[in-house]
Amino acid sequence: MQKYVIKLINWLQKQLALYHKTKQVPYVIAIWFPYHVAAILAIVYATQNWSWWYPVWALCGWILLDGIGNNLTLHRWLSHKSWTPRKFFEPFLLWAATMVGEGSPLWWAALHRGHHHRVSDQPGKDIHTPVENGWLHSYMGWQFGIDQNSVSFRYVVDLLRDHHITFIHENYNKILYGTLAISYLVFGLTFTVWFFVIGALMSLHADGLVNTFGHVPAAGYKNFDNRDASTNVWWISYFHWGSGWHNNHHRQSSSFDFGATVSGRPHEFDPCMILMMPFATKDEINRLWTQRKAAILKRQQESEIK
Asked: Cβ(197)–Cβ(39) under 8 Å?
């Protein structure tokens, strides 16, 4: 028992040091714990006071946060620069990325670029790989051990030049909780929890599934030998906006479409191909869909030759 108390004290001291360094309440304390507590209480309450609005609000929150905020903005735009949104929509996309609740957009991109793709599945380097760390670590445990020094911003020098992105980074908790407060005042507590909190948790746990099963070969299949454990898992792909085509993505991270544009397989559909359309120019939409069509035709032609 004493050993666990000492570990808890050390962890709290690390969180306090992190706060003094960043001037922000650490993620696990500011978001992870309160979000999960709020979601559990909301679900318990719903069992006695059910309304069909609850799943409707959660579905809409999932589209905004997991689809637009996480997969369109954090992953494809900021981390990989694989598409260019209309300038008019950039503030909205950055706000949606902030409300995902997985850290500031700047921090998220730095972790993804420098501490996952560059060193994928290398023990001691890839922060959230299940290789030698186990599934619990890759699913969620890594978030409890990370500190400010775990992520280097040298991988996001281009983003550091954007004052909008740095402003959000410096005021991340204020923006997130300010939005929650406004939502509470305008729409009420129940809507706020089901739309923003549960919507964000759906995104967080979907990322946990990708970090885990997307790096367990037995969970799916591989189209490419990427010299890591990245794996395509179809059942994650369709509800997590294409991210389950993980082996494809590690093969060609610069591709907006994680599915058929990389593999040429039509059934490997990336839902972000539809989700991005309201936010992209006509030329950008044509570019991305043309790439997909060309990849499918190329594969068909190669199959006919064989």
From this structure: yes
